[in-house]
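Service request form, structural biology core

Requester: graduate student, group of Dr. S.
Request type: structure prediction, single chain
Budget code: on file
Notes: please return the result as structure tokens.

Sequence provided:
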Amino acid sequence: SLNGVSSRGAILYCTNYPCPECVRDAIIPNKISEVVFWKDYLRNKLLTADEYELSRNRLIQAGVKLREFDFPQKRIREIFEMALLAGDRTEYRFDPIQLIKDPTQK
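Core staff response, request fulfilled:
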């Protein structure tokens, strides 16, 4: 809990299936009741099958529900388009060319 606000019974929404460390150190101790994830372990190349089983078993033993969220490709595209438009409202502009320019040239 942060600033005395309890997360007991909260639903955690995350991009990837939780790793064993996140399950052990954050989800279970904070009494999260449900984890809703977008990418399952098969699409998360950083999580092995053994890690998936360890996470799954720990969550089941703690009584935490698991639910995969199906995110349609159309909606993903809409979100990215909105993010690109939001960038137009800020002063900062990302310039990928700056990353490849030779720093010795002015």
